[in-house]
Amino acid sequence: MDKESFKSIFDQYYEVIRNFLYYKLGDIDQAEDITQEVFIKAWNKRDEIVISTVKSLLYTIASNLAINHFQSAKKKYEFKLENEERPTSETPEYQMEQQEFAIKLNDVLDQLPENQRIVFLMSRIDDLTYPQIAERLGIGVKAVEKRMHGALKFLREHITQKI
Amino acid sequence: MNKEKFIQEWIEGTISQERVNELKKDPEYSETIAELETIVAATNRIVPPHTKSKSQAWDEIVDKLEEDEVPAPKKGKLIKLSSLVPIGIAAAVTLILAAYFLLSSETSFKTPSGKQMAYSLPHGTEVLLNAETSLSFDTSNWETNRVVKLEGEAYFKVAEGVPFIVKTKVGSVEVLGTSFNVFNRSDMLVVSCFEGKVKLITSRAKEIILNANQASTIIEGEIDEPKEFDIEKTATWREGEFYYEDVPFPLVVEEFERQYDLKVVYDTMTSRPYTGYFNNKNLQEALKLLFPPMSYQYEKKGSTIVIK
After folding, report:
1. Among A159, B107, B108, B255, which residue has the fewest nearby CB atoms (within 10 Å)?
2. Are A156 and B44 a contacting pair at CB < 8 A?
3. The whole model's pTM is what?
């Protein structure tokens, strides 16, 4: 594989791999560092890369590298909510509410079991379907459904009544 | 539609907003929808942080790669974790690893027809699974007990360590660090050793050692003498290419079905041996290379190939 085709793999998967590691680790600096390592490792294996399996390969390398890193002491989610396009989103009250909600959401996501958090966020943020998530994580679709179900249950219990 | 299924499809985004609005009126659904709407709405707008752009990240990788561009030895060398970190940290890492593997001790991978998948097993061993293959293993004692169960075909690249064992219904394969291919479909097992040494053990406890570039077959419990193989034409399924020399034609057809996720239908199937080649990227070409040489005519009907 030459640099050009590798670059296109990078362009396609950089963000989702970085996100995946962030979901796992909760530390963006660490997630970005490991993402870099993932692609360097993939580059070193470029002769063995099969395009049809490169996705699951990248996720597998990412998982394995994440295991070898210490859980960062900084683990704290910093997801933000994009502004809605509506007039009230400009008011200070609304901004405040949104910020409070984001803090709550980050807090609940942190308490969510890792397996469930990863599947939930891959679905919500990376817009992946269950079969796509299953393929990337090397698990069955049933397992994805189960984790999603657990995540939603947890979120419903911890978020809904508090706002 | 049951409620769980509805929630699932809604979250996955495979259900229309109209349908959601419709169901909102249904008292059975209204409460659930109201509860979930907050979560759905919020997480529609949720964005993860980043400290650098994609192009910055790419530039950094390019810099790193150029730094490392000292001609490296072709074969990757495993670096033991313990040689990189002080002993106390190594122990902590081991604990974290142990905890991880205890939580997820039984793992299995399965590939469908028409797909191949690559996986990394713990501690640097890699495996590529051909279509319709399942692999399962228990990682809880991985450091002292590396055993995987295989049905189908896989290529392994095993990192050094304690013996690595591949169990199939017909027999098992035992290796230290090496690369090898295992083909097990029904009662046939073919093992091809690419690097290092491989020990092949039948279910009747007969043993044979394969050196690099040797292969052996077990059929009906009988084990063949090791034979040298052509490295250019063995286990090339990894590149989507399939070479055959005097192989019973039904076995070739089965591989074709697995690769294209198609069914071949026939009245009588010859068991004459086939010598030839096909790949999994060009169906028309594959059909031409497989059937006319065996004096069959073929016709594609949906997901079946009818041969006469």
Report:
1. B108
2. no
3. 0.49
